[in-house]
Amino acid sequence: MKNIIYISFLIYTSVCFSQGDISINNSYPTNYFANPMDIPLILSGTFAELRSNHFHSGLDIKTKQREGIEVFSSADGYISRIKISLWGFGKAIYITHPNGYTTVYAHLQKFSDKIENYIRKEQYKNESFEVEVFPTKDELPVLKKELIAFSGSTGGFMGPHLHFEIRDTETEKTINPLYFGININDTKKPTINTLIGYCLDSISQINQINEPSQLTFVNDANGNLVAKNITASGKIGFGINAYDQLDDAANKNGIYSLETFVNGQKIYEFKAEEFAFYETNLINVLIDYKRFQLLKQRIQKSFNQYKNNLSLTKNSSTNGIITIENGLNYIVEIVAKDFKGNEQKITIPITGKKENIIAKNIENVTPYKIKHQEFNEFTNKNVKVAFPKNTFYNDFYLDFTITDNIAKVHTPIVPLANNYTLTFDVSNYNETEKNQLYIASISEKGRKSYETTVKKNNTFYTSTKKLGEFTLLVDNENPTISLYNFKNEQWISNHTSIKVKISDKETGVKSFRGEIDGKWILMEYDVTTGILTYDLKNITYTDAKHNLKIVVIDNVGNLNTLEATFYRKK
Questions:
Q1: 27: Cβ contacts below 8 Å, ≥ 6 apart
Q2: What angle do CA 17, 19, 23 make, to 5 degrees?
Q3: Taking a C-beta distance cutoff of 8 angstroms, is the pair 71, 150 a contact?
Q4: pLDDT of 62-79, one tens digit each?
Q5: Is the terminal CB of the chain with fewer CB neighbours within 10 Å at N or C?
Q6: Is 392 helix (H, G, I), strand (E, B) or coil?
Q7: Which of helix, strand or coil describes residue 290?
């Protein structure tokens, strides 16, 4: 019991909201969040942490790998949004507070009774498990310390935890919650384990190499890092792989800030303060995207090569790019810090020396030149690709080939800012085949995955941000449905729920519908297990015999139906 109470307090964050406390110029009141009993939070994820294709928008708070821990409102306000989805945030609550901020609580297992009753009415009204509603100010007011939900792991393949955010209500920008006084224990400095040097044009070099180079370094007597002296010429930059750990957790979290100095002058800074959601794709130019795709290692660059306006970075006139002149010496310092101010520094001594380049990356020239500031459209056999203006961040030659009905649209080592359209001509297929035909992407390991396919007469297309291989496949198999926790014709008076397992191995489950005695029932779908669950407390029965009907449809329209009988006393 003590552990449960402790975690309940751990998740709760009390916010001392008052009118007039709205922050200005990133100066946030530090007394906004203060944990009861001053118990530090234990985090598994930090703000603006580097994730796949996005920056983490809040804090992930540990719940000791358990679900069902009480979550309380952090301040007075009203629930302005409730969203239930199979993926993403899963079950999430948004609370608008009177001081201009909104707090978000995500991956919840379930809501408090008041909120459950409200959202259940909406689900039955829409006959859908997935819903999104925006209550008015007077519908669902909440008080500070009021129980609003229980922690969970909804939203996909993830362990139990609470995702917590603070947003500016007006701008929707998400802000680092640690600015508001949330207490964490962190006396460990960040770790830097990889240093990469980059040549930023065709004539630059580092140690006579015009390609990204991994540089060696050692620890000095003060615990800082010193790289081996390099020779360089022209425009260069650096990047590091770094992480931070809290005192009470083994998780490798993101760093709070990254600064670059040249001969003592700051030329670049990344700081995890706040960002807008439309900026989150810029993570793919903040990191070495190619290295991440090939080696699954995130190198965070300490320069802004594409001169974007990512609000997490503060650039000098050089954007962190260093111009090395022949015959001059330079000392570059890169400093990684966590929120508590612990820091790790790496020093890179550079001698300016123009030499012959002995290794250089040569671009493969193809007939398909991408001019990223223009609309680009190419056709090869029965496949067309169309890239809107600024889909990419720079110009390059696209590798676009068709072999054995497989369309290769480059290799997935180039970051995209926006979706493009991939279209197949399907005029050679008959109408029956078209009904079950779909576009699939093919992973490097050969796994084929359904891509949302729009069908228009003799053309099928998908809008995607994936590069790589694609093909047309046929799905002529129906989804599978099976009873999970009872058998047909069984008495289930002692059961608290009905469970049914559904799956579709080709294109995946698109929709499902459950009915008892001809009436729609609310079934919760766990995407990780494929199990549909109906809570038997949601209905009162007058007869003992009941008919259960489950209908499942996959993404090309294949349908399967299961009907079963069960018996249950009042």
A1: none
A2: 80
A3: yes
A4: 998 999 999 999 889 999
A5: N
A6: strand
A7: helix
Span 303-331, mean pLDDT?
91
Nearest Cα to 98, choosing from 34, 22, 31?
A: 22
Q: Is 108 left (phi over 0), alpha (psi -120 to 50) or beta?
A: beta
Lay out the sheet containing 147-151: strands in order across.
Answer: 70-72, 147-151, 108-111
**Cα gap 409→67, rounded to integer Å:** 42
Report strand pairing: 369-370 vs 77-84: unpaired
Name the residue type at position 404.
Answer: D
Average pLDDT of the chain, as a whole number: 91
Burial class (CB in 10 A: 0-12, 13-18, 19+), 150: buried
Beta strands in 216-342 (DSSP E): 217-219, 225-227, 230-243, 257-262, 265-271, 274-275, 300-301, 313-315, 322-324, 329-337
For the segment 190-211, what is each residue's pLDDT rounded down to a tens digit? Answer: 999 999 999 999 999 999 999 9
Residue 515's nearest CA partner among 480, 557, 554, 564 is 564
Per DSSP, helices labelled H in 419-528 are 431-436
Question: Cα(107)–Cα(425) distance, rounded to whole angstroms?
Answer: 41
* CA count, 13 A, side-chain hemisphere, 57: 22
Reported as a single tens digit per residue, the pLDDT across 228-274 is 999 999 999 999 999 999 998 899 999 999 999 999 999 999 999 99
Which residues is 336 bridged to in the sheet?
Answer: 258, 344
pLDDT > 70? residue 38: no
Residues in the chain: 570
Phi and psi torsions of 367, nearest 5° = -70, -5
Please give the biggest Cα pair distance in the chain: 93
Rounded to an integer, what distance in angstroms lies between the CA atom of residue 387 and that of residue 23?
41
| pLDDT average, residue stretch 517-542 | 91
The Cα 263–Cα 332 span in angstroms is 6
Pairing label, strands 490-491, 559-567: parallel
Q: To which H or E segment does residue 521 belong? A: strand 519-521
Vertex 267 angle, CA 262 and 269, to 5°: 125
The DSSP string of 67-129 is S--EEE-SSSEEEEEEEE-SSTTSEEEEEE-TTSEEEEEESEEEE-HHHHHHHHHHHHHHT-S
Rounded average pLDDT over 391-401: 96
Going by DSSP bridges, is the β-strand pair 50-51/161-168 parallel, antiparallel, or unpaired?
A: unpaired
Which amino acid type is present at position 414? V
Instruction: State the Cα–Cα distance between residues 371 and 394, nearest whole angstrom.
Output: 7
- At residue 248, the pLDDT reads 86
Q: Which residues contact 278 (CB under 8 A, 6 or more apart)?
A: none
All residues at 6 or more sequence positions from 199 whose CB lies less than 8 Å from its CB, including other chains: 205, 206, 209, 210, 211, 212, 234, 235, 236
Read off the tokens for 232. Answer: 């360089």
Which H helix or E strand runs over 148?
strand 147-151
Look up residue 102 and give its two tokens. Answer: 């909104």
pLDDT in tens, 335-368: 999 999 999 999 999 999 999 999 888 889 999 9
Report, as an integer, the average pLDDT of 181-195.
93
Tracing tokens 């301040």 back to the chain, one arrives at: 75
Tokens linked to 210:
């015009």
